[in-house]
Amino acid sequence: MEENLLIQKLRELLARDFVHRKSIESDLYRSEEKYRMLIDQLTDAIYLSTLDGTFTGCNRALLEMLGYSYKELMQLSVSAIYAHPDDRRHLLQQLIDKGEVRDYEVQLKRKNGELIDCLVNSSVRRDQNHEIVGFQGIIRDITLRKKTFELQRAKDLAERANKFKAEFLANMSHEIRTPMNAIGGMLQLLNKTNLEPKQHEYLDGMQTAVDSLLQIINDILDFSKIEAGKMELDNRPFSLQQTVEAIISTIRFKAEEKGLELVLDMDPSIPPNLQGDPLRINQILLNLISNAIKFTPEGEVRVTIRLIDKLDHKARLFFSVKDTGIGIEQEKLQDIFESFTQASTDTTRLYGGTGLGLAIVKKLIDMLNGAIMVRSRKGQGSEFIFELELSQTDNVQPASQSEQEKDWSTVQDLQARFLMAEDHALNQLVTTEMLKGRFPSLQIDVAETGRQAISLFEDHNYDLVLMDVQMPEMDGHEAARYIRTHFPKPKSEVPILAFTAYATSGEAEKCLEAGMNDYISKPVRATQLISKIMQMLDASEQFSKEHFLHESKVQEHISFEYLNTVTEDDEELKLRMMRIMLDETPMELKSLEEAAAASQWDNLRAVAHKMKSTMQFLGLEDTLETVKFIEVSARERTHLEQIPEKVRSVVQVCTRALGALQEEIDRIK
User: Fold this and answer.
1) What is the CATH number of the domain that holds 109?
2) 134 three-state secondary structure
3) What is the pLDDT of residues 263-293, one digit of tens each?
4) Do 470 and 333 fall within a single domain?
């Protein structure tokens, strides 16, 4: 009985134990299931492997990453997924040495053979005896991140390369254009001298060579600007007829030199006022017409422009430039608009050029949303055809009178003082000779550095500053900003004209942002330079328009009549007095300028008082009255606004008089 009871209790205990174990197993299973579900939800791939390199477990992310099923992966050697076997050996060595590895970069191979970039974080698994039995880890796919990084790196490198290219082009432009400015300027000056016909012939040849070299430079710079996306289009009202007629007028002489007929056939129904970029249309037509003339030994060049249709304030236009020249081989036609391409290997040798002209034309027409094609046969001429769509406008653009400039030809002389900041000796000489040849009374002070320019500007009053952009110590931009910010009005408002050899995009903006009024590109043409200067002086509130001498005024000349009377024709006494005046007058003029610039009225009065006797001895009666005016105004503090102009007048007259004084001394000796 007791034995049966014992057996029954034992069975109950075993049953309860079984139920308890099953409950534990069930809880454990549920826990493991939750764990597996959690692991499978992770986006990072997780793996377990044995010491000999077989997989013992993984999550869904690893299967998706590598493209295998669970069964396939469990039968696969771990080394099979490595793109480079050495990577696994290095990884295992580090794991064994250190126990774990973090952010180990490696390339793995998917089932389809595709390579992916991954980061591996792994550690060893040990048994109860602390022996290594396998490995476990997390793998992260960084392929997209790495590609993004590489793309960003490539973008940064490209931007740096573009920046370096732009800087190189700017420097190249400056280094070439600066001596070209000197050469071109010297040729212009030489052309004004008395030359024999043969010398004129040589001079014309040199000028042609200079123009050709500049065209090559401009082509390279234009092409680079377009390639870099730095060329911007204008959008303003203009007259197509006036634009085209101006081109024909400009280039007709080239056709006449070769005995060619240049014909313009323009549809009269084309709207008179269009909206667009006349400068780029000018550039396209000028390039095509110049090419046609260059490659046509005889016959004609015909420019045809037709209105195709008008719709919704849009005008579709047809352009054709046709010649009877050498033509283009058929196999070359498809490449004719490519960069650095010529119709044949002999073209550059026979006709010159960079092979960029048509590439620039094509890119400009693309920018204008147009299309261009060419028809040609070898020996039978060529025809370049393009279409553009332009907007019509009711805004009337006056005939180039926005480009209309005043006629400055009536100005015979200019009473003014300029500061020229230029570090190149030849350019100093060329610019000075250009301006002095046109305006004999003009005074020009020269500074070779930006700092020297600031120093001279501080000491003297100037009507205009000619500022080279690139100079040592302080460049033109810095010097202009200094003038605008560190001097009081009206001195800080003096007009500044920038001289730049940089022909790259943004140079105009840089000059204007620095406070300059305008800029002119090297090589400088005398007519263009003088026109810019006259416009700036005309617009300046500080410059008296009376200093534009519109007729050949008889300048006040030195007279020795009073000096002869005082010395009673004693040549030795006269000579001593003239030498004293020759030595002291320049210092007095400088003191006069400095006192006026600093508004030191007592000093100004004293200097003017001292100079009266010199003016009397030299017979400069008008200037004597001016000096008296300065003396009285400084003493009584009246008419002070007129003093800078009066001082300038005294300096100009006396500077010329000192030359005549030296000549008289030389004569007596």
Assistant:
1) 3.30.450.20
2) strand
3) 999 888 888 888 888 878 888 888 899 888 8
4) no
